[in-house]
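Late entry, evening session. Most of the bench is empty. Finally got around to the prediction I had been postponing all week. Sequence below, unchanged from the version circulated by S.P.
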Amino acid sequence: MNEFAFSIPQNIKVGAGSLSKLPELAKELGKKKAYIISGPHLYKIGMVAKCQEALGSAGIESDCFTETEANPSTETVEKAKEGFQACGADFIVAFGGGSPLDVAKAVAVLATYGGNIADYEGAGKVKGPVVPMIAIPTTAGTGSEVTAFSVITDHSRNYKLTVVSNYLLPAYAILDPQLISTVPKKTAAACGIDALVHALEAYISLAASPFSDLFAEKALKLIGGNIRKYVADRTDLEACEAMMVGSLFAGIAFSHARLGDVHAMSHPVSAYFDVPHGVANAILLPTVVDFNMSEAADKYCFLYNAIAASPIAEKEFTPDMLGSEIRILNHELDIPASLSEVGVKSDCFDVMADDAMKSGNIFVNPRKTTKNDILDLYNQAF
């Protein structure tokens, strides 16, 4: 067994209607004015207003930034930071999917220490505590509410930079299944598969441990057993809650075990072609699973039975069945089957492969991976 360490320093609230606990948590932080970082869709459908109403009911003022886009950029981070500094808030509520949570973490760093977010790229660059955050995910997918990562797109380089620090962990997270009951079907599918990939890659990672496996296995069962029901009917609160908890557990798993080739390759896909992160992951997943078969096959039967609509006995299983089952799941969820279907151009594969090889996830992928392997995988997925 490899040496490993773990910590879970956060406070998590789970349950229908738990958004109402937001003022209580703000008061526990000892703060008086919130800066809500969210996105335009949540603002338009009145969800941000619900967040502000919850705070206002306890006399807590709030201002908001609702311009966060998918694959948020360094420019968006700068604009949100300026809004935070101008409004006089003393804590941040990250309200939305992975993009608002990533922006919130970046703003928390810049509002505390200044500079540009690229100054903090990599691990160990954040000097100490940042502006306190409360994370309220409105999708079941990223697990960002319990991860020490902020991923921001630098368009000047067509590159997704990652800031890594435990100081980025929100002080509190609220998982309210009612908040994801109106998620559009395509978003629900893409985010759900993203969470599945987090758990799967953490489970087969070379950096996996008994601790990360514990969370990855439970995440796989929760997500695999509920993703079809959740995408088909987002008003099924039981399925919603299972997906949110599964996503959170997957986030804890990959925070401690990292990920693999799927994520290393998907970040360039999103950076160059603005493909939603979950969609890029879903398309690449079966191809990478097939590639990793020679080194991780001993874990594939468990993965298959967690994902498959109809589990089978181990004696009936062969490792090649996992990639096939993932392709079936993607089809059932109406996720595109190839990179070409989402506008990716093969003439960028060489520079994309260079960027993928810069990812630390490559080094914990179960099968050793070269640039030529990445190029081959992109072409297979194309």
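Two things to note before I forget:
The two ends are 38 Å apart (CA to CA).
The chain has a mean pLDDT of 92.
Will write this up properly tomorrow.
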